[in-house]
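quick one, 436 residues, struct below
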Amino acid sequence: MEEVEMLADHFLHQNTEDALRVIDMGLQQHPNHQDLMLGRIKILADRGNLNEAMHLLNLLINQECYEVQLVKIELLTKFNRIEEAKKIALNILAQPQEEPELTYLDISDIFRDCEQFETSLFILEHREKTNALSVDMLFEKAYCLEQIGNYQDAILTYQAIIAVDSYIGEAWFNLGQVYYTLQEYKDALHAYTMCVTIKEDDTIAWIQKGHTHFFLKEIDNAYTCYMRCIKTYKDKWELYIFIAECFALKQDYENAILYYKESIRQNLDNHRAHIGLATCEIEMGNYPTATKLLNEAIKICPDAYEAWFYLGEIESRQQNIEQAITFYQKAHTLNDADVIVAMTLGNTYANKRDYEQAIPYYHKASEHADVLQRTEALMFLATCYFYINNHDMALYYIEKAMKEDAGSLSLFYALCPEGMEKLSEIIEKTNNKTTN
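---
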């Protein structure tokens, strides 16, 4: 019987069909074997047959068994009966445990795997009320905090792990990832540097360190990090894109083109390298070549909004404005959260003095932009409203922009010199109010 259980467990992690066959074979010989029944129930639950799984679970004789209770928590969670699942969990935790930490982790993992991150945190915090969390539990807590977007507490949690043991590379890496997500690149760089100091052969950490240098415009350092991974990074075609981007940012288009072409050679269905190569050709004025590359990228990935955007750039540079707008709008439809695409559409309409059409795109850009870009979008909105004679709205967006950056008024005057004459007195009052 033990051999059947081991065989079923082996297949359970690889092929559920084979696992189910082995379990059913075992159940034919031992119809009421609880571990085999639990294995069958887990497979049914994973396949979405929740009602059948719950029915079989309720047929088990030993309902108070720890493993049965855990499976019941999982099924109730998948039924979205969270309060019932929590009640069973708290009943388990109220009982004396030989290894309480493992029990808390077992239960927390169930809620986490079902993407009930708040409930997983509730379980961990229940433990934290009476005992300091172990490193494993702190990792669990930090992960759940990240999943619900509570990045500041996730940072504090990773820092707590590092305070326990500053040589845990995974904690430094994860901390770097949180800072990277928040675009706090200097802090991210420090964390990745600590990670690769602890574990020099951590290729992914070196790649992330390279990305961070890239966003900090430290291109030579980024290039060094990427080149360090040439022998160890599995997807060479992707690494060549990163290296090509370094050369492109330095306007060394010849070397950028070499690496983009090598990336394509290693992966023909690689739309990103096609787009990158096209941008180099655009900068060199080779518009027909660039257009061909972008159309190839679209064939590979029709939803590659960047390809549509750069087709718009080609048309715009050749003064084919209406065709450029068509391509820009296609890019915006595919990804309306991209600030550059939205701002470009707004600017294109504004340059045509079609301010009404520009306004929605500046609005969209302001929703997704960082502080610097948002201030710019708000001042462009103010300009548009001024030119359609809605001065109240123009003043509203000027004031909004100045709350974020008091020095942004110069941008409005550069965009809209007429506004300086007509609104200067009111703007000056707003400026004084903001400064005070």
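The two ends are 80 Å apart (CA to CA).
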